[in-house]
């Protein structure tokens, strides 16, 4: 090959490379994904559990929502106040975090709740509820005790003890996975400092409650008559506590004839 041919070939290769480079550069600009620096900084603050307790699909989705102003700085229940403060420094917003904890509204342990059926099969509350017409217990509102909530918890914060689910308050991060997993809607997130809780979820009338459980709310309203702060009311045969009004005096718990109102940390 002559020297001129070599130069021609080299020129063609060079021009081709230049054209390809220009086209790639243009394509890069056209299809460039804009990087949100705020979103990246917020994501670095989040714990990475991807538990969904914030209401978003995971930490990436929450970081994007916070950066776009669609979620508050204190939206992560796992990170708590520490994470909220860091994120607030980046985007501003409220850093106050009301610590919450999951609470199981049932006292129907094996010795207190009677059964109307026997179940053998897959240890799953959803399946048990469906296959037995609401569960094996006489009280169709009670905890089934087959551990769907336990399987859902990533933090080893809930276990089945004596036939009902119990929450380890110190391990619980209020992610809400157990709440979603319970087919009976027995688990709710309440303030960690809530001094008093009602450990029952039955909507039955008193005589029917007594027929199935020795530790069920009978809707007698003695608790409401004792409360000086209008913090407890009976609705649908079940006592409910207004945590905004409750002072933790404990009078409702003292007068409850079936002892389903429990005084927790912070109560008097």
Shape: elongated
Oligomeric nature of the chains: single chain
CATH architecture title of the largest domain:
2-Layer Sandwich
Overall number of domains: 3
The ordered string of helix (H) and strand (E) elements is HHHHEHHEEHEEHHEEHE
Average pLDDT, rounded to a whole number, is: 87
Numbering strands along the chain, what is their spatial order in the largest sheet?
Answer: 1-4
Alpha carbon gap, first and last residue: 100 Å
Radius of gyration, in Å, reads 29 Å
Largest sheet: 2 strands, antiparallel
Question: How much beta, percentage-wise?
Answer: 5-15%
CATH C-level class of the largest domain is: Alpha Beta
Q: What is the fold-level CATH name, i.e. the topology of the largest domain?
A: Alpha-Beta Plaits
Number of helices: 10
Low-confidence stretches: none
Task: Report the strand count.
Answer: 8
Helix content: 25-40%
Structure in words:
35% of the residues are buried. By secondary structure, the chain is of the alpha+beta class. The mean pLDDT is 87. The longest helix has 28 residues, at 3-30. 34% of the residues lie in helices and 12% in strands. Strand 2 and strand 3 form a beta hairpin. The chain is elongated, with a radius of gyration of 29 Å. The chain has helices at 3-30, 37-45, 59-67, 80-91, 125-131, 148-152, 177-181, 206-212, 222-226, 251-255, and strands at residues 100-104, 158-161, 164-167, 187-191, 196-198, 232-235, 238-241, 261-263.
């Amino acid at each position: 090959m002559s020297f001129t041919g070599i130069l021609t070939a080299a020129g063609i290769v060079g021009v081709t490379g230049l054209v390809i480079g220009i086209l790639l550069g243009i394509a890069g600009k056209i299809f460039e994904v804009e990087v949100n620096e705020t979103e990246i900084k917020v994501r670095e603050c989040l714990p990475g559990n991807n538990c969904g307790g914030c209401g978003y699909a995971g930490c990436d989705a929450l970081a994007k929502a916070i950066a776009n102003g669609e979620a508050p700085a204190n939206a992560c229940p796992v990170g708590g106040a520490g994470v909220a403060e860091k994120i607030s420094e980046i985007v501003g917003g409220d850093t106050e975090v009301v610590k919450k904890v999951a609470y199981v509204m049932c006292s129907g342990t094996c010795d207190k709740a009677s059964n109307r059926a026997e179940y053998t099969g897959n240890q799953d509350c959803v399946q048990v509820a469906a296959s037995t017409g609401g569960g094996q217990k006489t009280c169709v509102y009670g905890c089934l005790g087959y551990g769907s909530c336990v399987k859902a918890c990533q933090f080893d914060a809930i276990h089945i003890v004596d036939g009902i689910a119990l929450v380890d308050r110190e391990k619980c991060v209020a992610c809400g996975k157990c709440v979603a997993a319970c087919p009976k809607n027995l688990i709710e997130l309440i303030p960690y400092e809530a001094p008093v809780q009602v450990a029952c979820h039955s909507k039955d009338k008193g005589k029917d409650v007594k027929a199935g459980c020795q530790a069920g709310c009978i809707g007698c309203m003695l608790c409401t008559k004792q409360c000086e702060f209008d913090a407890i009311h009976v609705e649908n045969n079940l006592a409910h506590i207004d945590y905004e009004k409750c002072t933790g005096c404990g009078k409702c718990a003292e007068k409850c004839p079936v002892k389903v109102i429990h005084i927790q940390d912070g109560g008097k």
